[in-house]
Amino acid sequence: MSWLREAGPYIEQFRGKIFVVLMSGGDRSEVTMSHLAEDLVLLNALGVRLVLVQGTRRAIDAHIEAKGQPSSHHGHRRITTSALLETINYLVAESAITFRGLYMRAQHRNKAWVPLVTANFISAKPLGIHEGVDHKLTGAVRKVHATAIAEQLDAGALVYLDHLAHSPAGQLYNLASEEVAAQTAIALNADKLILLGETAICCDPANQIISEITLSSIAKLRSLQTAEMQRRLDAAEKAIRSGVSRCHLLDAAADGALLTELMTTEGTGTMILAEPSVDIRLARPDDLAGLLHLLSPLEETQALVHRSREKLEAEISHFRVVEQDGRILGSAALYPLDSNNAELAALVVDPDKSRQKVGSLLLRRMESDAKSQGICSLFVLTTIAHDWFIERGFREVTIDALPENRQALYNHQRNSKILQKDLQD
After folding, report:
1. What's the number of domains the chain is made of?
2. Average pLDDT for 163-187
3. Which one of 99, 282, 337, 349 has the fewest CB atoms closer than 10 angstroms to its CB?
4. How far apart are CA 324 and CA 330, in angstroms?
5. Based on the domain organization, do 252 and 340 belong to the same domain?
């Protein structure tokens, strides 16, 4: 139930938006592909306009290995001979037929019918000779016929693309599916590019999962990833630099990865965007509803002092909020006590989110605000977060350490612990 409540704002936000989804050929099991088809039908029913791009790289590799067919690469690009192109043509057609059947079944189960349209929406050009290597029938995207795709989306259809395309002269070329997805997203000015792939996670140098990457971080992370993840990173970077708002790298084999990534704040994959998604800003009157929703549970347990709507509205200028995708994830207030001291209050983070990450980020911003106001010492009164603040440089003090005006307002019945942190550099 909580998952459904969290999804509500995203459903409204995504209605009418264009998402380009690269479907990896990594996990071709019927169960995995069937679940993906179900999720895509659901997204379409919720008003998302979808363009699907089928990848078949794993199937091609498996076929080549099984048949002992010769194959070579230059960098990440496969050299496509005439004989290999025949094999790829067959595998692409097989994937399309399989997916179409699963899509029809998913529609029937969901009592829906939306056409799955494919056509010559992509035109190709030869990749040519690079570094002395002739790429033969390996091509690149010449043009995405965005107007024709948009017309199909406007008519309510899903558009299905693969990575084979003809040149204006009628020659068929094998393109990189990641390039097709990225260029299509750019041409359509899509809201999201979603790249499903074989590599489950994107990790940092400490082998920790990365949930969010900005453009400035891609270069130093790229060499740490698998070749498959590098291809997706390159496609995402190109799309973001060309105006696509957000890209998502997901594990193709994880059931429900698409819905969990799109419909929850935490997600399950790696999101790539130009700037950090979490915005810490001064609170506004129109944030009152979000603040009340955040503060009320802790006020009910008496972990926080109750603030009426009227009091909160009057004190709104003291608050900063953490916002992501239009949702208030955290809040904190700064109350000057005198020219040198201030109190940090109502530091709250949505319990479903990563408190350590968002809370620490918010604390650093509040400390920065206090310093900019000439505050030398920051106080916190808490009943439940003593250890959290101690870990971040605060120390426990007695009531005598508080400025006299705050001592007079101390609630002895709550018996809050008093913590202090010096802010001088």
Report:
1. 2
2. 97
3. 282
4. 10
5. no
Domain that holds residue 311: 279-422
DSSP state of 198: S
Element at 344 (helix H, strand E): strand 341-349
Q: Calculate what percentage of the chain has a pLDDT beyond 70.
A: 96
Given a contact cutoff of 8 angstroms between Cβ atoms, the answer to whether 382 and 417 are in contact is yes
Domain boundary residue, one of 230, 255, 273: 273
**Which amino acid belongs to residue 247?**
C
Q: Are residues 134 and 200 in the same domain?
A: yes
- Taking alpha carbons only, the member of 390, 391, 405 closest to residue 418 is 390
Tokens of 400: 């005598």
Residues 239 and 367 in one domain: no
* Residues 141 and 157 both lie in one domain: yes
Task: Return the amino acid letter for 319.
Answer: F
What is the spatial distance between Cα 188 and Cα 191, in angstroms, rounded to a whole number? 9
Give me 196's structure tokens: 């499903």
Cβ distance 170 to 164 under 8 Å?
Answer: no
Q: What would the DSSP string read from start to end of 130-190?
A: ETTEE-BTBEEEEEE-HHHHHHHHHTTPEEEE-SEEE-TTS-EEE--HHHHHHHHHHHTT-
Domain boundary among the residues 234, 254, 273 is at: 273
Q: Do residues 204 and 342 share a domain?
A: no
Lookup: tokens for 50: 């979808």
User: In which residue are the tokens 């003291």 written?
Assistant: 318
| pLDDT value of position 356 | 46
Same domain membership, residue 408 and residue 295: yes
In whole angstroms, give the CA distance from residue 27 to residue 356: 34
Q: Please tell me whether residues 242 and 319 are part of one structural domain.
A: no
User: Which CATH number goes with the domain that contains 166?
Assistant: 3.40.1160.10
Residue-level pLDDT at 307: 87
Per the CB < 8 A criterion, the answer to whether 138 and 192 are in contact is no
Per DSSP bridges, beta strands 164-166 and 212-214 are unpaired
Nearest to 75 by CA among 135, 23, 22, 26: 135
Indicate whether 264 and 299 sit together in one domain: no
DSSP string of 68-96, one letter each residue: T---EEETTEEEB-HHHHHHHHHHHHHHH
Q: What residues form DSSP beta bridges with 396?
A: 419
